[in-house]
Design goal:
Blueprint lengths: L13 E6 L7 H5 L4 E6 L4 E5 L17 E6 L2 H4 L11 H10 L9 H38 L3 H4 L19 H8 L1 H22 L59 H32 L4 H27 L13 H22 L15 H29 L11 H29 L17 H8 L1 H34 L6 H14 L5 H26 L12 H34 L1 H14 L15 H19 L2 E7 L1 H12 L2 H4 L2 E6 L3 H8 L1 H4 L1 H10 L2 E5 L54 H17 L18
Parallel strand pairs: 1-4, 1-5, 5-6, 6-7
Antiparallel strand pairs: 2-3, 3-4
Helix pairs in contact: 3-4, 3-12, 4-6, 4-7, 4-8, 4-11, 4-12, 6-10, 7-8, 8-9, 8-10, 9-10, 11-12, 11-16, 12-13, 12-16, 12-17, 13-16, 13-17, 14-15, 14-16, 17-18, 19-20
Keywords: Membrane, Transmembrane, Transmembrane helix
Protein name: Integral membrane protein
Length: 810
C-alpha cells in the first residue's frame, strides 16, 4: 500500500465480514435487518451492509463498542438460476476433479506426486471419451446403424423413413447414415466446450489480488510438486500496497500461492485436449466401420484412404494424450499465458479429421449393409473400461506410496480417498451412459427386448453395458450390509449417550423423550465420520464387479447371458433377473437425474438443494477435468481477499472474518492469500466448520493437520465454535503452541438449555449445524478476538498530534 494512502490515525474502526455457508443466505438474514444496501459487487456475489451502516467509516464514534457488520453473499455463484441445475449431468466430471485434490501430503516425492496428477488427468480424459462414445452408441449405433437398417424398427417411425435401408434413398447407405447421425455427438462436444469456455469467462478469469513481483518464473507444474520442497517465495503485495523493507522470504503454503485461484492456462489447455478427444471419438465411430468394410473390398483406393485416415486419427489421439500429460497446474504465479498451439490447433485438427471421416464414410458403397451392432463399438467400450480400471489401480498405488512417506493419521481411507473417488467417478459415468443407451434401446425396440426374443428388431447397445447393469443389484446388496451395521451402531450409541446428556445438563428430573432426541442427534451427527468406510466399500466393490462385468461380456461375446449357458436353469434365471433389474435401475437413475434437473428449473427450493451439492463439490479449481462445473472459489476467494486488503489499507482498522460451514473454508482460503502485514489486522472466527472434519481428512495435502497449524501460526487470532450435534462442523484439533492458544472452544451446548425455565419458557430447538450466531458464545468470542487485535495492531499517530515536520509533538 502506498504510504500516502494509509489511514492516518488511530486504530480505525472494526469490521465483521460475515461469509455464509452451503445453501446460501440472503443479506437480510445474515445481517438481521430487512433494510440492506449493496456496498460492492454484482448480482453473482456482493458485499452488503445494513442501510444504517452504509457510511460507518465516516462516523467511527458510533461503533466504539461493536464492529460494523458486513455480509458477503456468494450463493448465486452456484445456484443462481435453473439452468445451472442441469450441471447435475456433469457430476462424474466434478467427482473426477475432486480426486485430483485428494492426494496425500507429499514429502520429497516429486515424481510420485506428478504421477498422481497425471493419472487423474488421464482418468478424466477417459470420462470424456466415455460420454462421447455413449452419445455415439445412441445416435450412430442404435438409431442410424441398427434401427434405420432394420425394416421392423424403421418402418414404425416416420421420422426415420428417409434413412431406412429398405427405401433405397441417398441416405440409405450405412456410411451416409453414420455421417448424418454424427451431428448429435459432435453437437454434444461443442456444447461442453461452450459451457466450459463461458463459465471460465464468468467465474475463473478473476485475477487474484497479489502481484507477481518477486515470484521467480516457474515452468514446472507446481501442483505436482511437494509444497515443502518448493523454493521460498516472498509474501505477495496487495494492489497499491507497500512491501515492508527487508521482509524475510517464507515458504508459501499451497493455498497461499498467488496462482492457486487463477487456473486460466491449464483450464484452456485441458479444454482444448478434451474437446479434441471428443471430436476424435466421433470421427472414429464414423470412420472405423467404413475402414473395416473397405478392408474386405477388392477396391484398393478406399482401403488405402481408410488406412491413412485411421493413422491420422491415431496420431491426433497421441497428441491429445501428450498435451494432457505434459503440464499440470502452475501456482507460484498468476500464469496468464496461453498455449496457443495446443489451444487452437488440436480442436481444429480434430474437427478437420471428423469432416474427412464423414466424407470418407459417405463414399458410395453399393454392397454395404448394416447388421448387428456398430463394428468396433463393443471393443471400444471394453477398452475404455479396462483402461479406467488400470488407471484407478495405478492411482491407488501412487497414493499409497505418498501416504506411506508422509502419514496423516486422519486421512480418509489411509490416503486412498482419491483413488476411491476416482473409481466412483468412473462408475457414475458408466451408470449414466449405460442408462441412456439402455433406455433408448428399449424405446426403439418397442415391445421387444433388444437382442433377445422373437420380437426384437435391433441388437441393442453393447453387451458390456448390459453386464454392467447386472452387477448393480449385487452392489446395492453389498452396500446394504454396512448401512445396516451403521444403523445398529448409531442406535446403540444413542442409548449410551443418554446418561451423558442428562449429566451434562444436570437435570434432576430428566425428560426421557427430550434426552432421546438430543442423544439421537449426537449419534447421527457422528455418521459423517463413517463416510470413508462407505466410500471405500462402494469403490472396492465397484472395481471388482466391474472387472467381472468385463470378463462376462468378453466370454459372452455379443449375446447377453451366454457366460451362464450350461450353468443350470436356476443360475441362468438369477442372471437374467439381475440383468433386467439392473437395466431398469440404470435407466431409472438417469431418469431421476433428468427429473431433478427439470424440477430444479421450476422449483426454487429444489434448485437451492441442488445448489448445496455444487457448494461442496465445486470449491476446488478445475485441475483435472475442464468440463466439470465451474469453481466458484476462483471468484469468491479473490473477492474476499480484495475486500480485506483494500478495507484495512484504507481505514487502518481491525477486521474479523466470520465464516459458517463452507464459508469458513472460503474465509480460511482468503486469509492464506493475505500478505503478512494485512494478516496482523485480521482475525478468523469459524463455526460449524468442516475444515478438519471433512477437508482435512479428504484433502490432507491442503487442509491436513500440518497445513492448519501453519495457518494458525500465520494468523494470531483464530477461534472455532462447534457442537456435538453438528453433522458437518467439528473441532479443528489445533493445540496450544507457544503464544498461540487453543483454536477450539469447548463444545457448545445444543440445545442451549435442556427444558423450560424462567428465561426460556418455551422449549429450545436442537440447532445442529445452524444458528451459531444466536449462541451467547458467538458474541463473546468475537469481542475477545477484536480485543486481541487491538493489542496486536500498533496505534498510529493522529495528524493533529504532529508538527509541521511530520514528527510527533509528544
Amino acid at each position: 500500500m502506498n504510504p500516502a494512502h494509509q489511514a492516518p490515525y488511530g486504530e480505525g474502526p472494526a469490521l465483521e465480514l460475515l461469509v455464509h455457508g452451503v445453501g446460501g443466505a440472503t443479506p437480510e438474514e445474515m445481517l438481521g435487518d430487512p433494510r440492506t444496501v449493496r456496498i460492492t459487487g454484482d448480482t453473482k456475489a456482493a458485499v452488503h451492509r445494513r442501510t444504517d451502516d452504509a457510511e460507518a467509516e465516516r462516523h467511527p464514534e458510533r461503533y466504539t463498542d461493536r464492529p460494523v457488520p458486513e455480509a458477503y453473499c456468494w450463493s448465486n455463484l452456484t445456484s443462481g438460476n435453473g439452468a445451472r441445475a442441469l450441471w447435475l449431468l456433469l457430476l462424474p466430471f466434478m467427482v473426477a476433479n475432486l480426486a485430483h485434490w485428494m492426494r496425500p501430503r507429499a514429502r520429497g516425492s516429486r515424481r510420485t506426486t506428478r504421477l498422481y496428477g497425471v493419472l487423474v488427468r488421464l482418468i478424466a480424459l477417459s470420462l470424456t471419451v466415455l460420454l462421447t462414445a455413449a452419445a455415439c452408441a445412441v445416435a450412430l449405433d442404435l438409431v442410424a446403424w441398427q434401427c434405420a437398417g432394420s425394416a421392423g424398427c424403421a418402418g414404425d417411425r416416420a421420422w426415420l423413413g428417409f434413412l431406412s435401408a429398405d427405401r433405397g434413398g441417398w441416405w440409405s447407405q450405412p456410411g451416409r447414415r453414420l455421417a448424418l447421425a454424427a451431428v448429435v455427438p459432435a453437437a454434444l462436444v461443442t456444447l461442453l466446450w461452450y459451457l466450459s469456455n463461458r463459465t471460465w469467462s464468468a467465474y475463473e478469469s478473476q485475477r487474484p489480488p497479489t502481484g507477481e513481483e518477486g515470484f521467480p518464473p516457474d515452468d514446472a507444474d507446481d501442483d505436482d510438486l511437494d509444497e515443502e520442497a518448493c523454493a521460498p517465495t516472498p509474501d505477495a503485495v496487495p494492489p497499491g500496497g507497500a512491501a515492508e523493507p527487508e521482509r524475510p522470504q517464507v515458504v508459501r503454503p499451497a493455498l497461499g500461492r498467488p496462482g492457486f485461484w487463477y487456473g486460466r492456462r491449464l483450464v484452456a489447455r485441458l479444454r482444448a485436449a478434451h474437446t479434441a478427444a471428443g471430436f476424435l471419438t466421433v470421427a472414429a465411430a464414423v470412420t472405423v466401420p467404413a475402414v473395416r468394410h473397405d478392408q474386405e473390398s477388392p477396391d484398393t483406393l478406399p482401403a488405402v484412404l481408410g488406412a491413412l485416415l485411421a493413422a491420422a486419427l491415431v496420431l491426433a489421439a497421441s497428441a491429445v494424450v501428450w498435451v494432457v500429460l505434459r503440464r499440470g497446474r502452475s501456482e507460484r504465479r498468476a500464469d496468464a499465458r496461453a498455449d496457443r498451439v495446443a489451444v487452437r490447433v488440436l480442436p481444429g485438427a480434430a474437427v478437420g479429421l471428423l469432416l474427412l471421416g464423414a466424407v470418407y464414410a459417405s463414399w458410395s458403397r453399393d454392397a454395404w449393409a448394416s447388421s448387428g451392432g456398430l463394428p468396433g463399438e463393443a471393443a471400444a467400450f471394453r477398452a475404455i473400461t479396462l483402461v479406467q480400471g488400470g488407471l484407478v489401480v495405478a492411482l491407488a498405488v501412487a497414493a499409497a506410496v505418498l501416504h506411506r512417506r508422509a502419514r496423516h493419521p486422519r486421512a480418509a481411507l489411509r490416503g486412498l480417498g482419491g483413488p476411491a473417488v476416482a473409481m466412483l467417478a468412473c462408475a457414475l459415468g458408466g451408470v449414466m451412459t449405460g442408462g441412456v443407451a439402455q433406455r433408448v434401446g428399449d424405446w426403439l425396440d418397442g415391445p421387444g427386448t433388444p437382442g433377445m426374443g422373437p420380437h426384437a428388431t435391433i441388437t441393442g447397445p453393447p453387451v458390456l453395458l448390459s453386464w454392467q447393469a447386472s452387477v448393480i443389484p449385487v452392489l446395492l446388496v453389498l452396500l446394504l450390509l454396512p448401512a445396516l451395521f451403521l444403523t445398529a451402531r448409531t442406535w446403540r450409541a444413542a442409548r449410551r449417550l443418554a446418561p451423558v446428556v442428562e449429566s451434562e445438563y444436570g437435570e434432576d428430573r430428566p425428560d426421557e423423550v427430550r434426552t432421546r432426541r438430543i442423544a439421537g442427534t449426537r449419534a447421527r451427527a457422528r455418521l459423517t465420520d463413517d463416510a470413508p468406510v462407505l466410500v471405500g466399500v462402494l469403490a472396492g466393490a465397484t472395481l471388482l464387479l466391474g472387472a467381472g462385468a468385463v470378463a462376462g461380456a468378453w466370454i459372452s461375446g455379443e449375446v447377453p447371458g451366454r457366460a451362464f449357458a450350461g450353468a443350470g436353469p436356476f443360475v441362468e434365471s438369477v442372471a437374467d433377473t439381475a440383468q433386467a433389474l439392473g437395466s431398469w435401475l440404470v435407466g431409472f437413475g438417469f431418469i431421476l437425474f433428468v427429473t431433478l434437473g427439470r424440477r430444479a428449473y421450476r422449483d426454487a427450493s429444489a434448485r437451492r438443494t441442488i445448489g448445496i451439492l455444487w457448494d461442496v463439490g465445486t470449491y476446488w479449481p478445475r485441475a483435472a477435468h475442464p468440463f466439470a462445473p465451474p469453481c466458484y472459489a476462483e471468484r469468491a476467494v479473490p473477492d474476499l481477499t480484495w475486500r480485506i486488503c483494500t478495507w484495512t489499507a484504507r481505514t487502518g482498522g481491525r477486521l474479523v472474518i466470520s465464516g459458517h460451514s463452507q464459508g469458513s473454508v472460503l474465509a480460511a482460503s482468503a486469509v492464506w492469500q493475505l500478505p503478512a502485514a494485512t494478516r496482523r489486522r485480521v482475525a478468523l472466527l469459524t463455526y460449524g466448520s468442516p475444515l478438519e472434519r471433512l477437508y482435512g481428512r479428504w484433502f490432507p495435502a491442503y487442509f491436513g493437520a500440518a497445513a492448519l497449524r501453519d495457518l494458525r501460526r500465520d494468523i494470531d487470532c483464530w477461534r472455532n465454535l462447534w457442537r456435538q450435534t453438528d453433522p458437518i462442523g467439528g473441532p479443528l484439533m489445533i493445540p496450544a503452541e507457544g503464544r498461540h492458544p487453543d483454536v477450539d472452544r469447548a463444545a457448545l451446548k445444543d440445545p442451549v438449555v435442556y427444558g423450560r425455565s424462567a428465561s426460556h419458557p418455551l422449549p429450545e430447538p436442537i440447532l445442529g449445524h445452524s444458528g451459531y450466531q444466536a449462541d451467547p458464545a458467538f458474541a463473546e468470542e468475537r469481542a475477545q478476538l477484536l480485543a486481541r487485535l487491538a493489542r496486536a495492531v500498533p496505534r498510529q499517530v493522529r495528524p493533529e498530534a504532529q508538527d509541521s515536520s511530520g514528527r510527533s509533538s509528544a
